[in-house]
Fold these 2 entries.
Entry 1:
Amino acid sequence: MKTSFVLPADIEPLSRDPKATSPGRRINLHHSMCFGCGADAPVGLRIDVIAGEGLTVSASMKVEDWMQGGPGVIHGGLLSTAFDEVMGTSPLLLRMPVVTGHLEIDYAKPIPLGSTVQFTGEILGGVRRKVYTRAVAHLGDPQEPVAAAHGLFIAIDLEKHFAGYRDRAVHPSGHQNGA
Ligand SMILES: CCCCCCCC(=O)SCCNC(=O)CCNC(=O)[C@H](O)C(C)(C)COP(=O)(O)OP(=O)(O)OC[C@H]1O[C@@H](n2cnc3c(N)ncnc32)[C@H](O)[C@@H]1OP(=O)(O)O
């Protein structure tokens, strides 16, 4: 599949943390109201990202009617959100919290409503706080990808990064902090 994404020349291999989620198990994410993975989000993708061997992950997503973009097919922005979730979760195999710095999607084929998209993702390496990832999506045949993505994620200090926003956080009760 064609892509314009270029990995840096100084990229270095990264290693799975020994305490990372075991292969085959769901990687527990940040909070239940997340649009990408949260079970309590009123609207969301509810993607479970499963740890694979090494620095790999996998996930699947049923394409529901509300995800429609063009007639009968998924909206491209929603697919990019799914890729963001899949790739953004993978650095937890390094036990490293990250946020998205840069995301690139290559769309190869329309994805019909009602289909189930299968994702595989992997960490390609890192440079300082930067983690480079890739993911591919298919509809059942890994030899026939429908889309692919590259993501650059930046390691953060969770407490500091969200310090100025936590009072706006929405909870399953529907209330904001302090509301
Ligand atoms: C557990 C989480 C699961 C996540 C799944 C979903 C993920 C998300 O949707 S996260 C939400 C979307 N993303 C965001 O809100 C991030 C907003 N951006 C920011 O907060 C900041 O720009 C942040 C934290 C990424 C970087 O800022 P800062 O900490 O000051 O670091 P900074 O020094 O600018 O950058 C660090 C390195 O990354 C590089 N970098 C930063 N942004 C980019 C970019 N867009 N493209 C390329 N390189 C970048 C910098 O050049 C620098 O590289 P180097 O080490 O070579 O100098």
Entry 2:
Amino acid sequence: MKPIIQCEGLRKSFGEQTVLDGLDITLRPDSVSVIIGRSGGGKSVLLKHIIGLMRPDSGRVLVNGQDITALSERELVAARRQFGLLFQEGALFDSMNVAENVAFPLVEHSGLSRREIADIVDAKLAAVGLSGAGHKMPAELSGGMRKRVGLARAIALDPKIVLFDEPTSGLDPVMSAAINDLILRTRGEFGATCVVISHDIPATMAIADEIFMLYNGRIIASGSPDEIRASDDPVVRQFIEGRADGPIGLA
Ligand SMILES: Nc1ncnc2c1ncn2[C@@H]1O[C@H](COP(=O)(O)OP(=O)(O)OP(=O)(O)O)[C@@H](O)[C@H]1O
């Protein structure tokens, strides 16, 4: 199957610090791909390269075969419309109510009428289980609700690819399970490719079609949850078992 996202030889340093060190990754369409790895290991930096918010020092990022590292800022704006992005805290606009938040990308990019936009907003809020919450302000919402509003906004334009940056961090187990269901539905019902960054190993095992382990600036292991569980790589084992002792230093 043709990959939807392919990074080849990505290198990125900040001063002396090398964060991506010749990273290769290939993501399949219509799949849930979960990228795991240490805090500060470069997962968010990788995500920013995939949507063209950061440019690599060298290497390429192909999205549907198009090298987005070669695009101008103007072309990038168009290319980014293929993506929906759910930020860690939902990143809602605090001065807008829930419906206005979800409507925002539609107002900015779709050219649809107010009536059409209102219908889409209702449908997306229903999809995330928040029908009737359109008038609420972000400050009135729980963390889980904020994430669901963020997801409704991320899928407002029916993007082909939805990126989730630590979607379950800070949520209770029930809300985490609800968010994981939503990720699976985002792939199933909306036909989107989902790229998830996560520290949550049980959730990763439950939702991933393919897991990628980022370590020392490269993908050191990839495979289905069963393959990753059976990995004999000591770094992978330490990470998925959550042990303090092992090759991964704590520094
Ligand atoms: N714009 C930047 N300028 C300088 N350093 C940066 C920049 N962005 C990221 N870094 C550094 O790159 C490293 C990787 O950061 P990144 O946010 O990608 O980690 P992460 O794996 O997403 O971590 P976490 O799981 O804690 O969110 C960190 O050491 C960070 O300080």
